[in-house]
Amino acid sequence: MTQERIKLIQKSWLYVMDKADEAGRLFYKRLFEVEPNVRSLFKENIEKQGKKLIDVINWIVLNLQDIDTVFGGAKELARRHVRYGVQVEHYPLVGHTLIWTLGNIIGKEWTKELEQAWTEAYEALSQVMIEEHKKGQ
Ligand code: HEM
């Protein structure tokens, strides 16, 4: 990922952090609308889960320049997700839901360029997570 794309992602993320609670809520609302079957995997209060999700994405976004650290954290996260009953097929679903949520929260500042940058980042991250997931299955 180029420095330019990293900066683009980091700048756009500031909008999301301004509306962090709303973004977390919107993400799960959309996820369960699109795929109601995954609802039962979540045991934790969804409000809290939304905060955890935003926190970890925040950590990832702030550390994009240090990609080995990010991928290391992502592998640990993926191993925990095997225990949550998550399946490999769920990763694209979560990716689409994330991109949709970002577009919705960022609103008119959301551009095709941003969509491409975030999609590229999610693809790279989920690839690492899926590989790790398969090892742990
Ligand atoms: C890049 C992708 C993802 C990120 C960044 C992410 C982030 C998180 C975080 C931060 C947690 C809190 C617990 C922990 O840290 O272990 C969590 C839990 C969880 N995630 Fe994910 N996740 C991702 C992908 C997925 C996918 C694809 C699914 C499938 C539906 C999923 C379902 C869950 C479930 C079921 C839990 C446990 C909730 C509970 O204990 O109630 N996640 N996720």
UniProtKB/TrEMBL annotation:
This is Hemoglobin-like flavoprotein fused to Roadblock/LC7 domain. CDD domains: HGbI-like. Keywords: Heme, Iron, Metal-binding, Oxygen transport, Transport. Residues 1-134 form the Globin domain. It comes from Methylacidiphilum fumariolicum (strain SolV). GO terms for molecular function: FAD binding; heme binding; metal ion binding; nitric oxide dioxygenase NAD(P)H activity; oxygen binding; oxygen carrier activity. It comes from the Bacteria. InterPro entries: Globin, Globin-like_sf, Globin/Proto. Gene3D superfamilies: Globins. It holds the Pfam family Globin. The keyword Glycoprotein does not apply. Belongs to the globin family. The keyword Magnesium does not apply. One of its GO terms (biological process) is cellular response to nitrosative stress.
